[in-house]
Amino acid sequence: MLSHKKIAVVGAGHIGGALIGGMLRAKLTASKNIKASRRSKTALAVLKKDWGINVTTANKAAVRGADIVILAVKPQVSPAVITELAAVIRPEQLIISLMAGITAKTIGQKLGQPCPVVRAMPNTPCLVDAGATAIAAGVHAGANDLAIAERIFSSVGMVVTLPESAMDAVTGLSGTGPVYIFMVIEAMIDGGVKMGIPRSVATILATQTVLGAAKLVQETGKHPAILKDEVTTPGGTAINAIHVLEAKGLRSVLIDAIMTATQRSQELSRLYGD
Ligand SMILES: NC(=O)c1ccc[n+]([C@@H]2O[C@H](COP(=O)([O-])OP(=O)(O)OC[C@H]3O[C@@H](n4cnc5c(N)ncnc54)[C@H](OP(=O)(O)O)[C@@H]3O)[C@@H](O)[C@H]2O)c1
């Protein structure tokens, strides 16, 4: 599907760079078919050395001749970058935007071309091929465009398809979600250290516990509440810990965090989206 496509990655930072690595490791395309742009020549030299791809500081040069254009700059710089690209973008190019809060309609309007636009909301575990990405078809995008985006993001983790209206909520849940779990891991490590476990060992145990619990939910398909009940012995340690977690509002606090991150994504969308 992608082996002969030319792919431009505009703003090849953390996520853009992870995608380049993922696509090449998965052999979706050859390195000669990828061209990355960003402003730092040093960072581009590293990308070229690591992956053998073409690099440039000129965004227009990156997208000329590309079949697929991945927009991976921060939302704050998107108006300038999209306006710059409008002069060279052609209507048959597929635009895949990672930019949080920038709607497909806004991208289409700013480009001034009826290009198919697919929005994607990945997360940083893409860096270790364990990402969670939601994709949404925007203006002029069809099933084949979504399939191409799905193939690209599958190279760095799991992919779901949703309507574009869900993208702010996805940003609040999985886009920002790694941060919540980093804090949970950090707190569990501190808890272990407080109870006398060396920090290095507590780090291994806490991290593997989070990874293992997630895998158990994923692989058994059981509801997390059932898995919780299965290990909760009457009068045991788990029920005592659950009592404290409920009293301190663990679940409400996480729901609130996802709600507030979603609302902030909506605000940023209003700020940079038009
Ligand atoms: N990180 C996440 O967890 C996450 C999750 C979901 C979605 N996203 C979205 O993914 C996008 C990228 O995020 P990121 O975390 O990868 O950010 P990042 O590491 O800062 O990457 C963005 C890159 O854009 C480059 N850039 C800045 N101005 C530019 C310009 N005028 N022309 C070309 N390149 C330019 C920067 O490199 P230079 O300074 O060298 O130009 C930078 O490396 C954002 O829109 C974000 O909303 C991120």
Give a quick summary of the entry.
Helices cover about 55% and strands about 15% of the residues. It is α/β, with parallel strands linked by helices and about 270 residues long.
Total domain modules: 2
CATH superfamily of the largest domain: NAD(P)-binding Rossmann-like Domain
Largest sheet: 8 strands, mixed
Mean pLDDT: 95
**What's the CATH first level of the largest domain?**
Alpha Beta
- Content of β-strand: 5-15%
Query: Could you say what the CATH topology of the largest domain is called?
Result: Rossmann fold
Strand order of the largest sheet: 3-2-1-4-5-6-7-8
Measured between the Cα atoms of the first and last residue, the distance is: 33 Å
Structural overview:
The chain is an alpha/beta fold. It folds into two domains: 7-166, Rossmann fold; 177-269, ProC C-terminal domain-like (ProC C-terminal domain-like fold, Orthogonal Bundle), CATH 1.10.3730. It has helices at 14-25, 41-51, 59-63, 78-86, 104-111, 143-154, 167-175, 177-194, 199-220, 224-230, 237-247, 250-272, and strands at 7-10, 34-37, 54-56, 68-71, 94-97, 117-121, 131-137, 157-161. It has an eight-stranded mixed β-sheet, sandwiched between helices. Helix 7 (167-175) packs across helix 12 and helix 8 crosses helix 9. 36% of the residues are buried.
Set out the fold topology.
Elements (H helix, E strand, L loop, with lengths): L6 E4 L3 H12 L8 E4 L3 H11 L2 E3 L2 H5 L4 E4 L6 H9 L7 E4 L6 H8 L5 E5 L9 E7 L5 H12 L2 E5 L5 H9 L1 H18 L4 H22 L3 H7 L6 H11 L2 H23 L2
Parallel strand pairs: 1-2, 1-4, 2-3, 4-5, 5-6, 7-8
Antiparallel strand pairs: 6-7
Helix pairs in contact: 7-12, 8-9
Bound molecules: NADP nicotinamide-adenine-dinucleotide phosphate.
